[in-house]
Amino acid sequence: MSNPIEVRWHARGGQGAVTASKLLAMSAFAEGKYVQAFPEYGSERTGAPIQAFTRLDDCEIKIHSQITNPDVVLVLDSTLLDAVDVTAGIKDNGIVLVNSDKSAADIKKKLGVSQKVYVIDANKISLDELGRVIPNTPMIGALVKATGALNKDKLIDTFKQSFGKKFSASVLKGNVKAISRAYGEVTSA
Q: How many domains does the chain have?
């Protein structure tokens, strides 16, 4: 993908989209990029639809608004596909990445888009690696693979540095495994 890269995250409150948006920005910053990461909340309650935004660029970012024409759309909860127009404004050469156990071809057909669609079962990966459903870190691993925008090892290093004191060693290790596993398992149509 070319710079700048604008990412719009669709999730439900409590799924970690805001944290993931910030982690993506921190990782890009560690690679020398200019970044922005910010949320948009509606009713601010667990389970309510939310959006988060991330901008990455090699040059200073002078725009300070929501992302209405994203290069990448990430959907952390596939039930939002029936509730929100997640592909609104996506660029013609954009990418849609959905957390789903369905095939990329099925999701592409459901969305009716011409853009490349990627899927990863981030719920299963997080359940396997963390013991609970928190799809944000697997989604970042899949995003890095789908876009090639960042280095996976730098992402993992940034994650460890940012959350090493917050999480136990086992939670940290589980998230690292989730990122790596999603990086290897993401599929497209």
A: 1
Task: Give strand pairing partners of 99.
Answer: 120
Q: Read off the pLDDT of residues 142-170 as tens digits, 9 standing for 90 and up.
A: 999 999 989 999 999 999 999 988 999 99
The SS3 assignment for 121 reads: coil
CATH number of the domain where residue 20 is located: 3.40.920.10
pLDDT (tens digit per residue) in 9-40: 999 988 999 999 999 999 999 999 999 999 98
d(CA 55, CA 130): 28
Q: If 0-12 CB within 10 Å is exposed, 13-18 middle and 19+ buried, where does residue 79 land?
A: exposed
pLDDT in tens, 52-104: 999 999 999 999 899 999 999 999 999 999 999 999 999 999 999 999 999 99
Taking the CB of residue 130, how many other CB atoms lie within 10 A of it? Answer: 18
For β-strands 95-99 and 72-75, DSSP reports them as parallel
182: left (phi over 0), alpha (psi -120 to 50) or beta: alpha
What domain range is 105 assigned to? 5-188
Q: How many CB atoms lie within 10 A of CB 7?
A: 25
Q: Is the pTM of this model over 0.90?
A: yes
Residues 6+ apart with CB under 8 A from 144: 150, 151, 152, 155, 179, 183
